[in-house]
Predict the structure.
Amino acid sequence: MSDNENKKPEVMDAKAKYEQLRKEKALKKAQKAQKKSEKDPDLRSETTDKKDNIEKNDKSDKKEQKEQTQKNETTKRASTARVIFSYVRIAIIAVAAALVLMFIVIMNARVPTGSMKDTINENDRLIGLRLAYVFGEPQRGDIVIFKYPDDESTKYVKRVIGLPGETVSFKSGDVYINGELLDEPYLREPHSTNAVKQSEYVVPENSYFMLGDNRNNSKDARWWNNTWVTKDKILAKVVLRYFNGETGSVGFSGF
């Protein structure tokens, strides 16, 4: 047998002996620490307190983390609600403003006939100002939207010619107001002498005499059963055309 083979068991025995000594030393150290802990209540209490504090701090951290998460979710929901409410409020204000504008401030109208040519064409779309006569009176030459006296469910667009208390006369195709010739540069063509039912009208108080600019093709005060339009039946003063029915194009022009 060689020398190497004789040395191998000796190496293994030394290693095993070292492990045995290490274990015995660790055991003695643990026993010593245990005995010390048993003999010293303060040390045992301190150890226990440290353990309790660690557990308490851990629970506290978890609680704070949970509360913070809940707070973040609540803040996020509140922020979303504020954004939604903001949009809803804007929408309500916009709708309210549109309703006020359409039913109190302005009036939209489409003219179906050519009775006001060449000032207003067929299918023109107009904007009328409802508040025009709240603090004032209609003036001669104003173009107005009003309830048709023979059928108030229908709205007409004509020009104011005769004012309250005036006498409107027709002579040789011309219009006279209280005996004076009325200058009418807006007429489409000369007024036919046959285009009247009677030659003279006396306008009552608080009433107006309306005629179309296309005088020879206009169903106006000359032909109505109820000749006069009272102020309370005038709905708006026409101030703007935004669509030209003759050209079929959008365009703005005032009156």
Remarks:
- Residues 53 and 59 are 10 Å apart (CA to CA).
- The chain has two helices and twelve strands.
- The mean pLDDT is 85.
